[in-house]
């Protein structure tokens, strides 16, 4: 009887797992279990769709569903989430309780957007951005019109893309975060300051250092405020009190942890993702994500995991963590597929790495921005490049680049080699390319990248 391999989740990691299985010569059955009837989507393109910059089909980088299914000879079981797995019996179950047997399994269910557990977070004018459906929902809402002001919670790479698309529609926009600065997981302080001032120039209003503790319909706020209960909490926007919200024109009131409130028409939460692993059960070892080894094997025999649903090696810290990046999901999916097909390949790990383009600027960050050390900021004389670096023991532990994505590949490669202890990490070719992009020799020397 033909072997029967299952793949749960049909995103980047699932797709690359399937591709690697076929590329490695696996000729048995591949059953794909997806909660949708869509081809694999690229979540990072969702904001581009909502912004109207790409068509709907542009969110699906591997082509249409029928073509992908045919190319890899898949048996697609779409529209049903997997709900449970019986590892001993090698069976999985969908929401209707139907069972499917497998010989080997790849878990690739990615992450889902976090919505905070606060009053009002499930309201009709509250949005998030992860899946294709999220992008469609926000786009449809914006096209209906009547949005004068929005609050985006989460000064993250996703949050800033949402802010950008809202500002491009002329919508008044507040960027709020519990952290005191923008990009708290990636930016060094000097870079955060530069970005914050550029955002202010583009009309983005910061509201940092405070969480959102409730979202209230204005009518309800008005009633409560009039009764004097919540209305006594403090100023709203430019000094108004909660009970006066209806006059400010927003349909919602967002209440912050410092007791102030702010009127708006809608709220978009971009406060991170959580591994979508509610179905894996207690028999599988999990931390924040599914625990895997460098073959992408889980704690259960013949079960592999890849992408945002699992923890992988952080090459800088040596720990494992979820590294929510497209290239990471693709690389882990490939390694999982190869090992399922019988090859002995190893995932080399990655580091948290951000490349974001917004408001005509590029922000690239890699390494750990929390590590202490000697920091320096360099701006090229032509203003075309800003580098912000933390050095420890003469080696970079965090690099931020503004406005010059052309040097990020060389610097990241050098950074990765540097943390592996290699000498002359970028070599002569890299040096030449850095000089061509106006990065002086002393910078390479300071970063320990010189040949
Ligand atoms: C707005 C945004 C911007 C981003 N920008 C960048 C960027 O600039 N650079 C970068 O590298 N990364 C970026 N990312 C992250 C990147 O998109 C992810 O790391 C990557 O898509 C992870 O792929 P995955 O296959 O692990 O998960 P996903 O792409 O989430 O795919 C998982 C699939 O599994 C399905 N699924 C979930 N549960 C079940 C179940 N129980 N049964 C069946 N199917 C299930 C899901 O519906 C989904 O289709 C961004 C993400 C977002 C949302």
Question: Could you explain how this protein is built, in words?
Answer:
- The chain is 26% helix and 27% strand.
- The protein is globular, with a radius of gyration of 24 Å.
- It has 451 residues and is α/β, with parallel strands linked by helices.
- It has three domains: 4-111 and 274-340, FAD/NAD(P)-binding domain, CATH 3.50.50.60; 126-269, FAD/NAD(P)-binding domain (3-Layer(bba) Sandwich); 360-446, Enolase-like, domain 1 (2-Layer Sandwich).
- The strands form eight sheets. Strands 3-2-1-7-21 form a five-stranded parallel sheet. The chain has a five-stranded parallel sheet with strand order 9-18-10-11-12.
- Bound molecules: flavin-adenine dinucleotide.
- The site of flavin-adenine dinucleotide has 38 residues, from helix 1, helix 2, helix 5, helix 9 and strand 24.
Element layout with pairings:
Elements: E1 4-8, H1 12-23, E2 29-33, H2 46-50, H3 65-71, E3 74-77, E4 82-86, E5 91-94, E6 99-101, E7 104-107, E8 111-113, E9 126-128, H4 132-144, E10 149-153, H5 157-168, E11 172-177, H6 189-201, E12 204-208, E13 212-217, H7 218-227, E14 235-236, E15 240-241, H8 245-248, E16 252-256, E17 261-264, E18 266-269, E19 273-275, E20 290-291, E21 303-305, E22 310-313, E23 320-321, H9 326-340, E24 353-358, E25 361-367, E26 374-379, E27 386-392, E28 395-402, H10 408-419, H11 427-436, H12 441-446
Parallel strand pairs: 1-2, 1-7, 2-3, 7-21, 9-18, 10-11, 10-18, 11-12, 20-22
Antiparallel strand pairs: 4-5, 5-6, 8-19, 13-16, 14-15, 16-17, 22-23, 24-25, 25-28, 26-27, 27-28
Helix pairs in contact: 1-9
The structure holds flavin-adenine dinucleotide.
């Amino acid at each position: 009887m033909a072997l029967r391999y299952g793949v749960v989740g049909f995103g980047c990691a699932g797709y690359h797992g399937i591709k690697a299985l076929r590329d490695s010569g696996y000729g048995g059955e591949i059953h794909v279990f997806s909660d949708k009837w869509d081809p694999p989507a690229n979540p990072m393109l969702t904001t581009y769709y909502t912004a109207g910059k790409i068509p709907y089909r542009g969110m699906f980088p591997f082509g249409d569903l029928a073509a992908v299914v045919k190319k890899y000879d898949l048996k697609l079981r779409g529209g049903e989430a997997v709900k449970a797995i019986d590892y001993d019996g090698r069976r999985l179950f969908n929401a209707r309780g139907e069972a499917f047997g497998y010989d080997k399994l790849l878990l690739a269910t990615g992450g889902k957007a976090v919505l905070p557990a606060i009053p009002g977070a499930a309201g009709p004018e509250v949005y998030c951005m992860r899946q294709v459906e999220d992008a469609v929902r926000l786009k449809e809402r914006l096209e209906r019109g009547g949005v004068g002001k929005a609050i985006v919670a989460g000064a993250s790479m996703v949050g800033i893309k949402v802010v950008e698309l809202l500002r491009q529609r002329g919508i008044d926009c507040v960027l709020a975060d519990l952290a005191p600065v923008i990009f708290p997981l990636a930016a060094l302080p000097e870079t955060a300051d530069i970005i914050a001032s550029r955002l202010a120039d583009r009309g983005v209003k910061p509201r940092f250092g405070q969480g959102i503790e409730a979202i209230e319909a204005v009518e309800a706020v008005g009633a409560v405020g009039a009764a004097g209960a919540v209305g006594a909490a403090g100023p709203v926007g430019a000094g108004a009190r909660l009970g006066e919200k209806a006059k400010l024109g927003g349909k919602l009131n967002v209440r912050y942890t410092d007791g102030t409130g702010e009127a708006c028409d809608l709220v978009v939460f971009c406060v991170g993702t959580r591994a979508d692993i509610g179905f894996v059960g207690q028999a599988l070892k999990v931390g924040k994500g599914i625990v895997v080894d460098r073959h992408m094997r889980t704690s259960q025999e013949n079960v592999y995991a890849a992408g945002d649903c699992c923890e992988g090696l952080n090459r800088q810290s040596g720990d494992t963590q979820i590294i929510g990046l497209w290239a990471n999901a693709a690389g882990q999916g490939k390694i999982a597929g190869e090992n399922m097909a019988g090859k002995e390949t190893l995932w080399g790990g990655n580091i948290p790495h951000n490349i974001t383009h917004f408001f005509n600027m590029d922000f690239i960050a890699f390494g750990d921005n929390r590590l202490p050390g000697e920091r320096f900021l360099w701006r090229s004389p032509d203003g075309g490049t800003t580098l912000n670096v933390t050095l420890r023991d003469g080696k970079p532990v965090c690099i931020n680049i503004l406005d010059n994505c052309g040097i990020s590949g060389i610097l990241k490669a050098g950074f990765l080699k540097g943390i592996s202890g290699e000498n002359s990490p970028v070599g002569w070719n890299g040096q030449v390319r850095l000089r061509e992009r106006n990065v002086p020799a002393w910078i390479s020397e300071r970063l320990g990248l010189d040949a």
